[in-house]
Design a protein that fits this description.
By secondary structure, this protein is α/β, with parallel strands linked by helices. The chain is built from 14 helices and 15 strands. 53% of the residues are buried.
Amino acid sequence: MEIEGTVLRGRKFEPIEGRVVVEGGEIVAVEETPTESDAVVCPAFVNAHTHIGDSIAKEAGAGLSLDELVAPPDGLKHRLLRDATAAEKIEAMRRSLRFMERSGTAATVEFREGGVEGVEAIRRALDGRDIEAVVLGRETVAAMEASDGFGASGARDEDFATRRRATREAGKPFGIHAGERDPHDLTPALDLDPTFLVHVVHPESEHLGRIEREGVPVVVCPRSNLVTGVGTPPIGELLDRTTVALGTDNVMLNSPSMFREMEFAAKVGDVPADEVLRMATINGADLVGLNCGLIESGRAAKLLVLDGDSDNLAGVRDPVRAVVRRAGVDDVARVIL
């Protein structure tokens, strides 16, 4: 299979006129050659932080605080999840996953509520879908053992030392929410030696220094942070110190569209487009050891093809800026997963 157009090649997303050659689901060559195609070919996205389970309650809880919305065990999200049937939750997750595929997401890193039962539910929702999910169980060691790792709510909520130790012994990733509402849980979160932190809206200089020294990646979710009223993360400062990936967080709060998240991060965070595209692709893939996120030989052929002649994209002069700041699901011509 060959995909022609303006190809955003490699880690710098160098736009070249040419084609991507795919064999057996792998990119075997990226060739510069004249083409008549108007397509823009870029890596499919990696959504580095989601809570897909609350797809049952989109736009619920207007005006509630962060704790009232999502804090365990009795935030609105958790109450609604308890009240929903397994079938309702699975069908709602399946529909969100289908939208994510259609809008160019190749993989997601999912913090999965509900213990072992919650892990099993998303596995059922994923059945028959092409999107890949790195599922991080929550609440118990058993959930971690049944999934791909552990996703902790936050060091202020409870003591995760035992579960961190078990996750390390299992050789699996351990992610934790930190610094979302204030800086006070950042130090205890870092003391757990996490694989990555999520949010980091309120780091102080000591936290930034430690993140840099210890090489701890960070996943930011700026639209979610704005909706819950906690502010927006200092993306530029974080990028100066560590690897930063991009996630859309709770489906109840925001559409799981990486197009919307990229545009918001680029414009509100004043971040260069190529940095944002790395945050939305290779940085998320590297976070959890996925072999996608770049267009280069040897990578999995998970590709997003945009119609460069759509009414929205026709006349674009900078294709990387166009993908990050302008494109949307209506511009998607093809998703190869």
